User: Fold these one by one.
Assistant:
Number 1:
Amino acid sequence: MKIGYLGPKASFTYATARAAFPDSSHQLVAFDSITEVIRSYEQGLVDYAIVPVENSIEGSVHQTVDYLFLQAEQIRAQAEIVQPIKQQLMATRADKKIEKIFSHPQAIAQSLKYVQHHFPNAKIESTDSTAYAAKFVAEHPEKNFAAIAPVASSLEYGLTIIAQDIQEIDENFTRFWLLGQTTPQIPLPVVMEKMTLALTLPDNLPGALYKALQIFADFGINLTKIESRPLKTFLGEYFFLIDAQFSENYLYLIHALEKLGITVKRLGKYKVYKM
């Protein structure tokens, strides 16, 4: 079985993939961007794809959410895996005068307060993943470069950690979705069961969002998240991403929403696992 993930090896997504599929018979396949991970699944190159969907500090990973809603067809989350995130600052030597720091935009945002305080003159450059940043720094030992990445990246690429746990908030978690057609056996504890729907509201229904939320209330379904994202058509047009506790009335809920003229895209009903 092949599992696509946001690489390279030793990224946070790699750790999630290995935790979900610890058996060595499963082949983990790295891709350079979230879009490439999802497309690899669409093209049948992998059996499952693992992508980050939300961080507790920085919010949704819009590249994932927007692609699944706007471009993907019939791709659904079969599981969610929550990973605690600890960011480390690493370089080829501990005594380097750091001039440029590389990392994924989310990792940079999570660690920005520390970086601005301790390295106010360092330039910051975004990469497609934290592990790629570490790999890039390791490949340029002559430069005064550093990377923000997980501990595993320092071990994989032979870097020295010069500052530990630099994320702004200790309670830092990232949600990852496992995309596929079926739900595999995952050797992690289950903490809850959820569903995710994307709603596009009709233009001619006053109070459409209120009426949609009222339906969730009528079915006694607790929301865990609601977020608006642009439809990328005209200014002021949005879809609403809703996470909720799973209910056996799932299909009845969708039917009731559609009766109001609301377009519903199902992004998944799944168990939530914690690393």
Number 2:
Amino acid sequence: MISSTANSKVKRLAALVQKAKMRREEQLFVVEGVRMFREAPVPWIREVYVSEAFLGKLEGEAGDQKARDIRERLKKCRCEVLADVVFQKVSDTQTPQGVLCVLAMPHYELAEYVDRWMTDSQKAPLLVLLEDLQDPGNLGTILRGGEGGGVDGVIMTRQTVDIFNPKVIRATMGSIYRVPFFVTENMGDTIDFLKKSGVTVYAAHLEGSVDYDQPDYALPTAFLIGNEGGGLRRETAARAGQYIKIPMLGQVESLNAAAAATILMYEAARQRRRKV
């Protein structure tokens, strides 16, 4: 058991949790909590740490099937035990559940996925494009909502909040394991690539002349969502095939990025269900 916060493993673990630069250099990220541990793809798992209290709780629930499953997975992963005070030091939550994993970052190639999506006769691709989102909760919620709405992939600019930020990870509720995501250096070029591939790109925009529920999203579709504060850059929005708007009542001008994206994703899902 590791009982000192001065331990080199503990210092490295804390740095992976806190520093995006460290995560990029090592191509690793950290997830925390029982659900995130249970759902983590086995090939991604590099290290597992549990608190002393968590281990004791598992031993006290010997007859519980869920506890048995967790213990079995811990044996396969060869976890290390941290003293409770040490685990608290590296945890990103106020009330840690007592288990965290170090995972390898997944890598997806956009061109490969677009080719696969466009040749799938069963389903037209549905994508979300994000320009410079800064709120971790928004990004995580969009991934989670995207999985529920049948989104095939999320593409974001390099300036978007780090998808491996612990707050983003927590907000995805496991969807980060199942929704492919891509980082683009130039969103304009990516939009042009998608359009040439047969995907219609819709920009969620205050200047939209068409209500969001009017276009046909059963066809290959991508929704373009802008930064929480400034919205889409004019030059980025201009690359889209069409501007769409979500009508607002009262004195509300617009919704936040996650709410707007969710409405659009689920409108597409609704249309697609009706055409099955």
Number 3:
Amino acid sequence: MRRSNIIYHLINAAIFIMLEIAALNMLRNNSTVQDVWFSKGMQAVSSTVWGFFQNTKQYFSLKKSNDALAQENYELRLRLAEIEARAGLENSVFELPADNVAGNFRYIPANIVKISNNTHHNYLIIGKGSEDGVSEGAGVITGKGAIGVIDAVSRNHSYARSFKNHEMNISARLGKEGAVGPMAWDGFSSSRAILSEIPHHVEFEKGDTVYTSGYSSIFPPDIPLGTAGEAKIVNGATYDIEVTLFEDFGALRYVTIVENIGKEEIEKLEDGI
């Protein structure tokens, strides 16, 4: 829109100049007085034209400077996102390694560009993509939970299926040494999940911490997820345990993408079985 306005003004200026020159030529004759008047008129027109084009040049120069400042501001915001994402993990039970690599996992701090929280198929758009080493199937975490799994990747962004999605569950452990079962969002509350298939004989207390089990090629072990609450017996054999999540999905701004370096090898082994 701005470019169209500039072109419009340039055309009007050119027409104005042509009309001014034509009018001055019509009025000009051989008299000295009119010659002087004509010269002054031409100087005024030239001054106006010069000022217009100088303003136009200045406009494009300022636009270029503003674009450069906007890019610099964007890069600084990304850097801040990385610092805050790292700080979020370093201040939790689960610590981000200094070199972003630990065991079979590599960690990529990132900011959230867009997030869905109000449907049964929630998702996140994350500001890191293939250019940053992100690939499909990577996990998304914070210091307070497993947030989702990367389903699609573009050059600079990634699409992640949120944990608050009916098609999502993770392998979780009741306490660091306890039983393991699938944990999924309860489908209603932004802060509750259900840990299932815990054997009836397993002892636990309300308030026990639930962690990622590590029995997955997506998430590393021992990421704190939430605390155990009420339980009900299913088919007389297992518990379904209500879990209050640590992470507030409504307040998410920064996450860390976690890539399993050995995932491809694990999947090849599984495909061969």
